[in-house]
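thread from #wetlab-drylab

HS: before we spend reagent money on co-crystallization trials with pyridoxal-5'-phosphate, can we at least see a predicted complex? here's what I'd submit
DV: go for it
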Amino acid sequence: MAAFIYGSITELTGRTPLLRLARFGKGLKADLIGKLELFNPNHSVKDRIALAMIEQAERDGLIKPGDIIAETTSGNTGIGVAAFAAAKGYRFRVYINDFVSVERSKIIQAYGAEVVPFSTVPGFADYYEASDGDFVAATRWLVAQVKEAEPHVHFLQQLQNPANPQIHERTTGPEIWRDTDGRLDIFVASVGTGGTLSGTGRYLKEQNPAIRVVAVEPGAGSQPSDRRPEPLEITGVHAFSEQPPERIPPNLDHQVYDEVIAVETWQAYQAAREFALAEGVLVGDSSGAVLYAARQLAARPENQGARIVLLLADGGANYLSTELFNHHLPAETLKNATAVQTSQPFL
Ligand SMILES: Cc1ncc(COP(=O)(O)O)c(C=O)c1O
């Protein structure tokens, strides 16, 4: 009998399972298959890029144990980096969206990292407002400010770090191709940095150009606007179609996707709740958005008999402080909810 013992938590990243969504997809003419990224060590797809970006910086000689790594994130990347930084002996500081669930900031702090809410960074709120809610620009501004004051801090910069899409091209895509035996017609994923969709989609299309790649983005009612600057948003996901080029994360490859489906936050919540009840698996709201979009795709006559692979980005346990799984509160009632109404202060 050969011993099989892992040497570090980092080695448990990736190789996540595919699950046929037989009960959630009941009555649909297409076959829905979910890739459960919650099986990563820190329960999200972001473990892949957290590790890849740290290891690329190590190879490039940019960091050594004891150094400070930093990142701006809506949560999952921060959790992954916090865990791997601990396992590798780095210090980690995370600049985080004020409305992430309370679990996220507590987990990051449990790994010994420093959590800095965006609102506490002097000037950030003014810049964000002046840039008309441009998150990409505001993040760039923040990184420049910190680097000027503390040049030794190394930002991973997931929005533009090429190691982000590359790790999906090297792992997520090949895993799906191998585990389906190359039998899939459509791949669906949401877009935050664009890394997952771009890297995975690129690999799958290289294997079979006929595979359709569908991107999911928040609907108009779930994006910040003048009327509602802080709506209840889909976690980790941002709108990119009909946005000026400077608002698009450099890691989103426009050549990869064939179609964009817009989903509102309440619809994403609804689908994640139905999925919990149908399959006995808790996933986050961005997965809910992908589930909702996949069901729309499956209902189209041209997709009869198609196999649709859905990237379910994270598990649902880190959302229990939110209304995501509150079955007593109909999801429709969250249509006009704001982030402030539905979140708990996290520090
Ligand atoms: C929960 C969740 N879903 C989806 C995404 C989008 O993934 P990507 O950044 O690869 O586009 C993220 C990224 O932050 C996320 O945290």
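DV: Residues 46-155 form a domain with the Rossmann fold fold (CATH 3.40.50.1100).
HS: ok that's useful, forwarding to the group
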